[in-house]
Amino acid sequence: MKVAVSSRGTERMSVVDPRFGRAPYFVIVDTESDEVEGIENPGALAGTGAGVAAAQLIADAGAEAVITSALGPHAWAALKSGGIQVYDAGRGTVDAMVKLLLQGGLTPIEEPNADLKAGAARFGQSPDAK
Amino acid sequence: MSVDPNGQLTIAIAAGKGGTGKTLVATSLAIAIDAHYPGCAQIIDCDVEEPNAHLLMQPELTAQAPVEVLVPEVDLDTCTRCGACARACQFSAIAVIRQAVLTFHGLCAGCGACAYVCPVDAITEVTRRVGTVKSGSAGEIDFVTGTLNVGDQRATPVTKAVKDRIRDDLITILDAPPGTACPMQETVEGSDYCILVTEPTPFGLSNLQDAVETCRRIGVPCGVIINRDGSGNDGVERYCAQEGIEVLLRVPQDRRIAEAYSRGETLVATMPQWRDELATVYYHITDMVAAQATGEGVS
Ligand code: SF4
Ligand code: SF4
After folding, report:
1. Nearest C-alpha to atom 8 of ligand 1 is from which residue?
2. B10-40+170-293 — its CATH code?
């Protein structure tokens, strides 16, 4: 299964970004082959519609599950309709999150938890970026 | 003063952020122009997400018309899930996520690109109402306002619809949405002049700089009205001097103005002396626009 994690970087050890639509990158981890692919999220800087664009991006990359923290109603609807499971990320690296997921340690997000357009405003740039 | 009431200027009133007194200036200017040229003024509230000029002008709105856009409807039986529509959409208003095809009408600009690229003609375009344009008059002032339906995020079609009501035979004041994002740019674009309303504070200055850059980029000449003058520092004045931007008017920090505004009164209604001050600003803008037009004609 391929898992997409919203992230500050492109690597396995990159830190998770809580924002779905506005995360600068997604790291796609293939849990079977253990391959890792970092993809840039062009929607990070977009106006509205960033969440839908991000959902399209990771779906096109073949992801069947997403680990993130905050996503709005559009992104949530897009992922759900496509049958992509969404899990709530904690703080830490992409690697740690995927391991937690495989151990059953992450809770699914069952409803949108951010407002439209809220991505940037709610979390902004955390001081612990990098 | 060389004044031509048939000059039919369109002047946008904008501000880098909300709450600077932009609408107060816009409505007061319209009233001042009307006082000098009865029946020649028009005000259009282009802040379709939060229109408020009507609160100050108390217009009688006699007509309303829907604003409609064409949005895609996908025939899922014909659709092959090829994803071409999603790739063609600049607004992420249509997505093909594995077997699901989703349309987000609130994001849709109604451009038709998705239907155009669909290889199997699975997309038909259906009309959807996104807002309303209302028109009427406040005294002799022609009044137009638009509202974007709640939940819709693309103001563009409604902004366009209200701007379509700009009358060539009237002097038009456009009350632009706050900020410098697309809706503000779409309002200011094509205007003869843009008045930027700001407060003399560091925060006001930074918003003003954004607004000035935006005006320059879209090629609309601009000048500044400082509201609550005397309440901050001289940063705005120094910036304007440095950049060669004219300060058209300074409205002092005055409790009476603030109180009147909170009662829903315009500047002009509270203190009639501002009518002449604002009319002078209008004359001055007329002269500047005329001079620029001649300048361009010569070169
Ligand atoms: S009409 Fe234009 S904006 Fe609307 S979904 Fe189709 S491509 Fe996107
Ligand atoms: S372009 Fe047409 S066929 Fe392809 S996914 Fe979109 S609606 Fe379906």
Report:
1. B89
2. 3.40.50.300
Specify the pairing of strand B171-175 against strand B10-14.
parallel
Ordered by start, the domain boundaries in chain A are 2-114
B294 Cα to the center of ligand 1, angstroms: 42
Model confidence pLDDT, tens digit, residues B55-98: 989 999 999 999 999 999 999 999 999 999 999 999 999 999 99
Q: Which DSSP letter does residue A19 get?
A: B
Provide CB contacts within 8 A for B120, sequence distance 6+.
Answer: B78, B79, B80, B82
Position of tokens 């850059």? B213
Paired residues of B222 in beta bridges:
B194
Please tell me which of the candidates B97, B106, B181 has its beta carbon nearest to residue A82: B97
Amino acid at A42: P
- From ligand 2's centre to the CA of B69, what distance in Å? 20
What CATH architecture does domain A2-114 belong to?
2-Layer Sandwich (3.30)
Contacts of B51 (CB under 8 A, 6+ apart): B45, B145, B146, B147
pTM above 0.90, yes or no: no
Task: List the structure tokens of B133.
Answer: 């344009």
Token couple for A48: 């509205």
In what helix (H) or strand (E) does residue B55 lie, and over which residues does it extend?
Answer: helix B53-57
- Please answer whether residues A16 and A128 qualify as being in contact, where contact means their C-beta atoms are separated by less than 8 angstroms: no
